[in-house]
Amino acid sequence: MPELPETETIARDLDRAVRGATIVAVSVSHADVLREVTSPADLSARVVGATIGRCWRRAKLVVLDLSTGDRLVIQPRFTGGLLVDDGTLPDVERRYAVVTWTLDDGRRLHYRDVRRLGTVSLMDVERFDAYTGALGVEPLGAAFTGARLAAVLGRSRQAIKKVLMDQRQVAGVGNIYANEALWLARLDPSREARRVGSEPAGRLRDALVAVLGDSIAARGTSFRDYRDAAGGRGSYSAQLAVYGRAGQPCPRCGRRLIGTHAVDGRATVFCAECQR
What domains can be seen in the chain, in order of their start residue? Predict the structure, then answer.
């Protein structure tokens, strides 16, 4: 967490808010989040004076293209996020800011990270392409078809859910949306991936795209730390069918939902009646 819908929401917010702004200063309070640069001074030297271009997402990464040809690549992981601060951002939201970029209009862009498990990298395009080259297909892209997913699943003996969350196979999907998509597609998360046929794979593809799209429309899922770029919370938690609802009735058939950590070591919630 954040997963694809949350990072997509942040990237879209930033594209509207800071595209075209120029970075005039950088401050780093905790250098342990930095990657691909030698020091805070190195980061500052390479980005001060750069204008921010397109802000976009790849997998669970937020990417800011700079006029220098470099890219700021932020991986929020569990508790990270990016906040645009025009001076009205509540102090509580600034509390865990570890990197701050000051913009030419006086606003600041904070990378906040409660547990400092995320990373802030600066890469040229060649390094970025190498870094992301091993990532799988984007589930919101045109290449993500039922046939493509069937081929991915057909190569693995692992549980379907584990394959969905493998970033080398499908980019951006984490635990929340894997649970939700498998419930919507009526597939047992523990079923061996290679034993999923083309028709169920097509259902799963459609379910995953639907779930991700609905979550983006709701600006993501907030339980504790996730915030959008303005500090707002996502509202998709109100639409979750299974995630976080172990022991409650299945919204489809009413049977008690099962919670387990046996599938992939992460919390898995499913309906034994609906999902086969």
Answer: 4-132 (3.20.190.10), 146-270 (1.10.8.50)
> What b/e sequence results for 6-37 when a residue is b if at least 16 CB atoms lie within 10 Å of its CB, and e otherwise?
bbbbbbbbbbebbeebbbeebebeeeebbebb
User: Is 191 a known active-site residue?
Assistant: no
pTM: 0.96
**233: three-class secondary structure by DSSP:** coil
Is 161 a residue of the active site? no
Rounded Cα gap, residues 159 and 151, in angstroms: 15
Best CA proximity match to 215, nearest among 14, 6, 53: 6
Active-site residue, 60 included: yes
Q: Which of 107, 127, 266, 273 is catalytic?
A: 266
Residues 169-215: pLDDT tens digits?
999 999 999 999 999 999 999 999 999 999 999 999 999 999 999 99
Cα–Cα nearest to 268, from 206, 191, 199:
191
Is 3 annotated as catalytic?
yes
